[in-house]
């Protein structure tokens, strides 16, 4: 080690000494520069010998020296500020981020301003539905003459409602004082103006489908095949998400819109935007700058559904114009929860005293009377929908319009979600899928695994067991239901295969369907396979 210490002293030690000499030279510079008494004594020793020109040169030299010293200190300060810049502007940076986020979401906040303008308009007309959204105002104005006498006399009663079996008591709150303007307006409407309708709970599923078709034709001039109505209504008893796909102009948005009109509960339409990438596009967000929550139509629709038992649909129009799995991923997980009380949207981290009545611990319950309908156009301007979305939904193709037909004028109905649910449950008990059909589906599954390396799992089998009885209850046949659900839920997975080299296998598959289910029994499946062969 002695040799190493000698080497360290001669080589590495010399480097350290030179490094320290840099700081020593800097302090010597400061010492000479700022030692004014010593410098004055030196100047006094020469004052008798200096000429006028030399005095001028002395002054210029000292001024230049001080300027160079000041410039050196400024450069040193800038260097230190750059080194420590990440620590200095943290608070300012956070404030700028909040402001940028606020500006990016001003479009959502425009809904809040729209409701304020509507409230002012109603006040001018002498209405009493202050701050309500458009749907609320229409419903409130139509029910205005049916208010109880105690409300007309100005008496204020405590409002009682039930969410997840928890009773909530709350008086009216001024929407301007709440961070949730629209949701608080919804609260006030249901506290003061809402009248529970008289439901027609005698209607059957088959009658419901027939009347729905006639209503759409006679009242809205929208024409659908009866089987299409059965596909759509049976889907309500199977899944919470329905996907309507096809070319433009075939009535994808019109079908759920007509459903809302038929059950006297207007459908909520949410227009998906190309830039949507996260959950806040659906739920909204709390603006730290304004201390208000930017509420969306989606949030208002889901929140309001907790107040009534009418079935309600929320349309995600052009849902694949953005990536569905980005902005809708959390909702997919929520709707998969086995118990209804677990299906909640997490809105805010903490509840304020004047928050809307049905926000419980910062969460909003997704009621069992809400269904989500996504419309899809499959073209170059849209994104492909992920398998996890299709697996949780019932897809329905609308590729053509039905021929117009004449029918008698048909009125809408009031039907409760509880009655529809009871009808679906009764159909599942009365028309369970036969064991023969289950055995055939098992054989089909084995064939797909062997020849295409595809299989349908437990989720799809559960949907088949639920869908087939509901379709039969709507007036269809078991074979029709199996044909439809197999084509939409099972054969759709063929699209993930390289079908250009499998046309012979697809031809054999169609022959296998005839052999297994009977000739021409699986019409939809065979047409779908032929379409795949043609497009590949």
The number of helical elements comes to 23
- Largest sheet geometry: 5 strands, parallel
Average pLDDT, all residues: 83
Q: How does the helix and strand content classify structurally? A: alpha/beta
What's the N-to-C terminus distance?
78 Å
What portion of residues is helical? 40-55%
Strand content: 5-15%
Overall geometric form: elongated
Instruction: Output the radius of gyration.
Output: 37 Å
Strands, total number? 12
> In terms of per-residue confidence, which ranges show pLDDT below 50 for 5 or more consecutive residues?
126-134, 137-170
Question: What would you say this structure looks like, in words?
Answer:
There is one protein chain. 54% of the residues lie in helices and 10% in strands. It has 536 residues and is α/β, with parallel strands linked by helices. The chain is built from 23 helices and 12 strands. It has helices spanning 2-10, 12-34, 36-46, 52-83, 90-104, 106-125, 134-142, 149-152, 181-192, 205-220, 226-236, 254-262, 280-283, 297-304, 324-327, 329-335, 387-392, 417-430, 435-452, 458-473, 478-490, 503-517, 523-535, and strands at residues 159-163, 166-170, 241-245, 268-271, 285-287, 292-294, 312-317, 344-346, 359-360, 363-365, 370-376, 393-397. The chain has a 5-stranded parallel sheet with strand order 4-7-11-3-12, sandwiched between helices. A 3-stranded antiparallel sheet has the order 8-10-9, with no helix packed on it. Helix 10 crosses helix 12, helix 18 (417-430) packs across helix 20 and helix 19 (435-452) runs antiparallel to helix 22 (503-517). Strand 9 and strand 10 form a beta hairpin.
